[in-house]
Amino acid sequence: xxxxxxxxxxxxxxxxxxxxxxxxxxxxxxxxxxxxxxxxxxxxxxxxxxxxxxxxxxxxxxxxxxxxxxxxxxxxxxxxxxxxxxxxxxxxxxxxxxxxxxxxxxxxxxxxxxxxxxxxxxxxxxxxxxxxxxxxxxxxxx
Length: 142
Fold this sequence. Notes:
Layout: H1 16-28, E1 36-37, H2 38-43, H3 53-69, E2 80-81, H4 95-105, H5 118-121
Parallel strand pairs: 1-2
């Protein structure tokens, strides 16, 4: 019997630019002093056409991370953390240091293990103050 391997159909989302803009619009809604996770953002975005449900479940948080890696410079990127309540460290840069500084300057508190209490600081989309939404009119970084 021949062994088959399952390769993901997509390593990045189809219609990547549109997906990225959806992510960034959600991130724009996170108020100062709150955070959300890659997975929670991914759960707010509908499955793209042509992507299987199983693959989308497995890849969606990673795709959000990719979108955040290419986000516009004026976006509050520091308000997105991982599901454990910690900052995801990327090799090759020290953005995690700046991210922690920005979060602490907004009043977020890290425990001794470098975690944020998600029960206290997690943003729930209904918490967005009225009148804060603006349209994204930015070019995506390449």
